[in-house]
Every structure is written in structure tokens, then in C-alpha cells.
Amino acid sequence: MNVILHPRYITDEQGKKMSVVLSVEEYEALMEEVEDLALVAERRNEETSPHEDVEARLKADGLL
């Protein structure tokens, strides 16, 4: 999923960006992306299975 953001900035008197405002929809999509990335990072050292093995397991379980 690509998150397209339309941020609005709150600035101080000098125009320095201090805060960001996102719609709830954008915020929730962004948080979902963060959660997905966290899962990928947690699992990066897990063993992998060949595609054929996964496919055979799914077929045996009636999921494919």
C-alpha cells in the first residue's frame, strides 16, 4: 500500500515547522504501514520456505 499524505503544517512566528496535521484516514494508513514494517523487521531472520512447500501445505489444508 502506498500512503499518499497531504500534510498541513503548524508553524511558529518565524515560519519554522513545529507540528504536522494529517487526516485521520492518512494517519491510520501511515500507522498500518509502520506496523507492517515492524513485522518485517521482526521476521527478517526467520527461516524461509520454498514456494512449492508453502503451496503444497496450503493445498493439503484445503486453503488453495
UniProtKB/TrEMBL annotation:
It comes from Leptospirillum ferrooxidans (strain C2-3). Belongs to the phD/YefM antitoxin family. This is Antitoxin. Residues 43-64 are annotated as: Disordered. SUPFAM superfamilies: YefM-like (SSF143120).
